[in-house]
Amino acid sequence: MDTTTEMKNNSKETNSSSQITDEQAMEHVKGLIEFIGEDVDREGLLKTPQRVINAMRDHFAGYKDDPRKFLERTFSEVEGYNELVVVSDIELHSHCEHHMVPFVGKAHVAYIPDGRVLGLSKIARVVDAYAKRLQVQEKLTAQIADAIQDELQPQGVAVILKCRHFCMCYRGVKKPESWTTTSKLHGLFMNNPATRMELFTLLGMGAKNG
Ligand SMILES: [Zn+2]
Questions:
Q1: Taking residues 60-87, what's their average pLDDT?
Q2: Domain, as residue range, for 83
């Protein structure tokens, strides 16, 4: 395995490549607090701008990761295991790019190796690195699947996300019980209905969506 370390990381102490200082960001938060009709100087809100930018740093930590880097290390000594690998129910927290409110749910990631496998924790890291950005569920699904397909080149990849969108639950059409499911399939999952069916059965997602 070659370890190319050509990644140019603009490792600034601020969030990713942001040119905005903490003080400037806090001023923006104060502006929003005023916008909703609150008093920025009342005691309970004094530390809120600082807390908000700390929280945002965490929510959007994915910008400083290169998700594909998590996929660089692979393993070949797996006794020729070339069957389905499914990591299911990976907790997912993201934010919709239209309203900047959370969408949360589960990611199910499956692949069929072609001689090489991934460390299982790396899959969750890839999910996180893409999720902790401003996102659209469809795009997030494709990014995870494409990264694994490109970097590992397995016989197939399937990524299924099932999420609740706060923007849909508590504003707009207000459908708190609704789930949005998206999937992106590559290789055997795309081309072979039996493989696809095996996956859906394993995930308990047969004809009756569960
Ligand atoms: Zn939204």
A1: 90
A2: 67-202
